[in-house]
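Task 17 of the worksheet. Students: predict the tertiary structure of the chain below and write it out as structure tokens. Keep your answer in the requested format; marks are given for formatting as well as content.
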Amino acid sequence: RQPRFDFVQYPSLFFGAFASTGQLEPLDPYFEKYAGTSDYLDWVMPAYREFYTKWNGETVGVMLDGDIHILHYRKKYFEDPELQAKFSSRFQQELAVPTTWDDFLKCTQFFTEELSGDGIYGTSMVVNPPNFGWGFWMDIAASAGVNYFDENMNPVINQGKAAEALDMYKEIISFGPPGAEAMDIGTTIQRWQSGSDVMSVWWIDLAEFTVQQQGVELAEDQGAAIVPGWVGDDGEVTHRATSLWCRTASIPRNLPQDVKDAAFYFIYRMSHPDYSDRIVADPFCGSEPFGKSHYTDAAAQMYIEPNPQRSTNDLWTTNDGIFQ
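Model answer:
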């Protein structure tokens, strides 16, 4: 009844739980006050706009972070001539960054069996239930056409392609490092940053963490690709990665009107590409792409440039060293 916060941000996978309470302010009238908001709403990528900001036909959230899983890999192992020759001889195909889950399993097994003596393994998959192991299974299942429910809302996660995806998930884990069956998020970060895994299915910002924490050589050895998929009847590979986290901002309904006006301006401004193009490219801001311009070449260039929004002014006269 008396909200403690002027606005709230929360993981988008809980959006429905918050929106269904009726305690979030409808934001469409606020958007109408500003010019160009129709362009902004079209700019937010549909997967985020439709699922993480709208409820019962109303906009009740603003996107701030668009996490999605990708495939991280260490380039040097895929480019090693000796490993390439061994892989080709064994599997009768070239060693390449996997585009299918079958090839991902082959690469995981191969690298583990070839390199585990040196403490290097093919991959570490997040497993622990509190750490979203289900989401990493869904990376495999979704690209096979799996949904959580059928059209009558009967659960289908225990049959057909969903069960086959679980078998694939378990087989990949079987070639992991010691403790792979209970792997948590923190350990997968540590393993990647130490160079102990050749591949890692993780959020985009795993590479950013590594740049922050590790030396240039290890950071520059990182490559990234789309999460693997499955070959369909038409011979094409279908890729579907889970977003799994993300962040939505909303305004509590029971606030004074002047506070709600100011709160909307703040979250809209932070989400707008005029600012978020730089925010998502700044490794210390913790936000990932959610708008169309975030995936352009111009936005990619910003990842290797200083963030000009991090400056000083009369109110903030000093700048924390990590932002320089």
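Marker's comment: The first strand starts at residue 8 and ends at 11. Residues 101-115 form the longest helix (15 residues).
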